[in-house]
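ENTRY TYPE: paired fold submission
RECORD: A
CONTENT: sequence, then structure tokens
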Amino acid sequence: MKVEIEESKLQTAYANACDGVKDFMESLFGKKVFEAAKPTLDDYKTIRTYEDACKALGEPIFEDPNNLPNHIIALMKLETISRALWGRNFQPKPDGEGSKVYWYPWFALWTKKEVEDMNPEQRGALLSADAHHGAYAGFGCLGASYRSSSAHASLGFRLCQETEEKAKYFGQQFIELWAEYLKFNFTVGNRLK
């Protein structure tokens, strides 16, 4: 019997394992396989958890002595992760002239199939969003004056990344944390019928 394991999944399992399991995995696969799994500011894909971000930055893991709301704790963790994803040599700086482009994870509240199944009027209301402003970096927010959604860079500059690829990774890899930060009476995977 032959078992194949994707290296990225093996490294994720290693990153989340306790020391005894890590030793066992190293004896099975060799230490070299897991060297790339150590969190580093030189490769954003090695940052797979909040704890990885803290380790790469050399910062302590946040302990909440004040019972802060969950969405505030999630935001604090996302900011730490964002700094780790920026890496060693990048510091975003606001650009008053608008010549720099930064990327922010974008989250859809509808699946592709749900959008395809909408009648033309529903889809038009969704896609027109805010015709005056267009779609800026940020996240969707519902508001009567904007019809279906609007997004502005001012809503999360500390969570922006310098490339679209990194922003996508940031949104997908940390989706549960993003949901905790952005949610209002919803959970990942649930939807209204």
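RECORD: B
CONTENT: sequence, then structure tokens
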Amino acid sequence: MIVRTTVKSIQDIMRQDVGVDGDAQRISQLTWLFFLKIIDDQDQELELTKEGYRSPIPERFQWRAWAANPEGLTGQPMLDFVNNALFPALKDLQLTGKAGDRRRVVRDVFQDAYNYMKSGQLLRQVVNKINQIDFNNLDERRHFGEFYEQLLNDLQSAGNAGEYYTPRAVTAFMVDRIDPHPGEALFDPACGTGGFLTCAIRHMQAHYVHTPKQREAMQGGLRGVEKKQLPHMLCVTNMLLHGIEDPSFVEHKNTLARPLISWGKDERVDIVLTNPPFGGREEDGIENHFPTFRTKETADLFLALIVRLLKRGGRAAVVLPDGTLFGEGVKTRLKEHLMEECNLHTIVRLPNSVFKPYASIGTNLLFFEKGTPTQDIWFYEHNVPKGQKAYSMTKPIRLEYFQDCIDWWGGTAREGRTPTPQAWRVTAEEVKARGYNLDFKNPYSLAEDRGDPETLLADLAQAEGEAAGLRDQLKAILAEALLR
């Protein structure tokens, strides 16, 4: 694939630059460069198809003006232009205040971006390689989109940056079960690199988007928020790759920074799809925004927010760790609140290896709808395919591995569900009796037969006696050898 080869050669050039240190910096550098090329290609198309359209980027700083000429700026003049002119100008773009202002998208992307490269010659080589990709060519854009997905996957090896990536099989399964439609308000409050948003776009395009009006309705319903700069930049670029003209609905801020009570009815949404960061701790003071559920545990705060943000009849699919299921204290109050406000109808339990290598804890997919309290919860245990011990980077989870669960699901109405070796049902009363501990194990899994306890103890005593006898023999042999 030409695109894959081109990007690989770009990465090889960057490895020669002393200023780019590690995968995370390399991906960050690649992304702002790709962003400028992608938005410039998109601008040129819009200038031809939309009367009166003007690029959000001032003419001097448009990609075509400073980067497109292979014999243009290089060396120190290139570095001076990028560091002292381009970045300051894009960070300080003046907004028009009009709806759909793409200037805000550009400004937000560059707000915390940084040029890591120290060699203007190498930067020129990178720019020239990027110029080989035409993002208005549908075939090239499709190939680049596939490679971009791999680029996001590569974040798994970029230290903590791996927290931004959810396996695409998991996002695709969750989106398929939620089944978003154009016009529905769909929100990811911790959107990372945009996995749920892009999966939702692809799902709606494949099933429901057939006219420009439907596409407009789809785009108008999307919303995401990301706290960290790198995944936000990756997400916005991801939206452009998927043909979204105005990705300003992806905001760069902390969703939890607002008091829970301040989210009004006009901000309620039809759908929440998200994998909130878990294991993390919020900064001091954030917990005061959630007086009923005062905690610094990020996943807990997001769960409280999601319940509030859903409209009556709204539906959600959320990735949460095992700790949420069996946790006590604030977690108990949260689960009680969730089951009172929502119908927690399904929990899909995933094996520990799904999120390897950057997390090796059990995770769960919680599906719920707001408006009626929980009566029964169906659990479904997802197992690693036969012949495979665990998921890994070389053998990741795939969407087809969820097919058994999809077949069992029972369609939109979830009708005809029956217990199977992987599926079982518990009542709300059972959950309450356990103090809202949702960590129900599969009752159909045969416990490993470890033998009769008394026999095992007798065998252990015999083994210990034999070991003691062997030690005495060894001591005697050593003592005899020393006397010689």
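NOTES ON RECORD B: Residues 15 and 387 are 39 Å apart (CA to CA). Strands lie at 186-188, 222-226, 250-252, 269-274, 310-321, 342-350, 363-370, 376-381, 423-427.
STATUS: closed
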